[in-house]
Amino acid sequence: MNDMELLKLSAKAAGLAGTYRRNEYGDEGMDCPDGSGGFYSWNPLASDGDALRLAAKLLHNIEYATDERPSEEIGVMRRTVNMPATRRAIVLAAAEIGRKM
Fold this sequence. Notes:
This protein is α+β, with helices and mostly antiparallel strands. It is 40% helix and 18% strand. It contains three helices and five strands. The strands form two sheets. It has a three-stranded antiparallel sheet, with helices on one face. Strand 4 and strand 5 (77-78) form a beta hairpin. It is globular, with a radius of gyration of 16 Å.
């Protein structure tokens, strides 16, 4: 599936009505009605907030495989999270839900 299909299906799973758009700069997303006659942009592939709200709405559990390594401070571990991969994984799971609806 391409990004357009992923966004449309994940919006369907989340119960969002919207229109896919790509602007002149190549930015993609969904324009969703905000209930007051306006629109808001929704793109969980690019926005951490949109992706995490999507995961929360669909009740997904997110588990990270982290790259843990000791820091200079005793007893402190640093964790690296790959947010672009996390967003894509959330959208892929949501798109699968939307595809089955």
